[in-house]
Amino acid sequence: MASAPIRPQPPMSVELFRSFLEGRPDEERWELIDGAAVMMAPPTYVHQQIATNLLLLLFSALEVHAPTLAVYQRGGINLGPSIQHYDPEPDVLVVDAEVTQEFERRYADRFYLTAEIVSSSDRRRVETKRAIYKLHDACTCILVVQQDRMEVQVDLRTQVGWTEQILRKPDDLLVLLDFGLRCRIAQIYRGTPLVPRQPPAS
């Protein structure tokens, strides 16, 4: 969920935005969207549960299938010089594991998967971010996960362009071959009102 943006004239550059961030408290979360600095409200617990579920599923898959990659929540990314006035922070992303070799590193130059957990108030902003992620050369997968209903939109880059798939049923399979992930959509929503945790058998 986003608050009212700070929109300077002319639009804020990535460099100016990051300088602005240096003066803000660490607990604040900001994104640069279309030249405007947007402060993000704290995520709901359902949002965090979905992001955590997806992170854990990807973590287990990457450990076996692609150990040179790593998955994180809310990491910084460098979109590249051709994309101006945008500095988003995906809810979940897959990058090269080597980024952890520098203690102070905050941004990854290459990212391969991004996921956005969407509330009703930020659907338009997420659509903009989705289009921007597609412009990054290394990105091959974009997930848009609705938090108030069971729906996962999957964009995959192929040799002939991007394909789109929407999964809505609990037993629909999310299959991401490049990342070794194969899971039911219900697993992404485990622990939320859509897939409540079951009490242990007595």
Sum this structure up briefly.
This protein has 202 residues and is of the alpha+beta class. 22% of the residues lie in helices and 30% in strands.
Report what the structure shows:
- There is one protein chain.
- By secondary structure, this protein is α+β, with helices and mostly antiparallel strands.
- The chain is 22% helix and 30% strand.
- The chain has one domain (44-188): tt1808, chain A (Alpha-Beta Complex), CATH 3.90.1570.
- It has helices spanning 14-22, 45-65, 123-133, 185-188; strands spanning 29-33, 36-40, 69-73, 76-77, 92-96, 107-108, 111-118, 141-146, 152-158, 161-167, 173-176, 181-184.
- A six-stranded mixed β-sheet has the order 3-5-7-8-9-10, with helices on both faces. A two-stranded antiparallel sheet has the order 1-2.
- The longest helix has 21 residues, at 45-65.
- The mean pLDDT is 90.
What would you give as the CATH superfamily? tt1808, chain A
What number of domains?
Answer: 1
The portion of residues forming beta strands comes to: 25-35%
The CATH architecture assignment turns out to be Alpha-Beta Complex
Summarize model confidence as the mean pLDDT: 90
Biggest beta sheet attributes: 6 strands, mixed
Strand order of the largest sheet: 3-5-7-8-9-10
CATH class assignment: Alpha Beta
Percentage of residues in helical conformation: 10-25%
Radius of gyration: 17 Å
